[in-house]
Design brief:
Blueprint lengths: L2 E7 L7 E7 L25 H32 L1 H12 L1 H28 L6 H26 L1
Helix pairs in contact: 1-2, 1-3, 3-4
């Protein structure tokens, strides 16, 4: 039994193409169960550790965008002139700046470790639920160690 992709152009303005899969032997229409439960409150869900690590990987990536912009601004300030270099040094002496630097570097460490986990899984290692759970725990443990080391280096 083979599958054939049929593309027909719809004349209504909102939709350009209507794609339907048809089975050669019989017409098959996929029905969607409209009685599915809808729960958009993530906090009330019981997600596995692999899901939380994946969500945190995405959040750390978004945080790194803002953190990189902040660090690039600080680099530009420090390279502009000797006065700018001194001003950037004075900015980094404050506790708030060190906290922000620690947060950005911690997010970078987590994002890098979770990215390595994804690369290992792309190679076919740890694709089972047990392997994914083990990899997620390793990422969390290694991140805790990295965050502590980054904190020691900054302060």
């Amino acid at each position: 039994i083979g599958w054939r992709l049929q593309v027909s152009i719809c004349r209504a303005p909102p939709c350009l193409f209507f794609i339907r899969l048809r089975q050669r032997a019989s017409k098959c229409e996929l029905a969607v169960n409209d009685n599915r439960p809808v729960n958009l409150d993530v906090a009330s869900m019981s997600l596995p550790i692999t899901a939380w690590v994946s969500i945190a990987h995405r959040v750390s990536g978004a945080f790194l965008i803002a953190g990189t912009a902040l660090l690039l601004w600080l680099l530009d300030c420090s390279l502009s002139s000797p006065e700018g270099f001194r001003a950037a040094g004075e900015m980094l002496d404050g506790a708030l700046a060190r906290l922000l630097l620690w947060a950005v570097l911690s997010a970078l460490a987590y994002h890098a470790l979770a990215g390595v986990k994804h690369l290992i899984m792309d190679a076919g290692i740890g694709e089972t639920m047990e392997g994914g759970t083990r990899g997620a725990r390793i990422v969390i443990g290694a991140t805790v160690v990295a965050v502590v080391l980054i904190g020691v280096l900054i302060w």
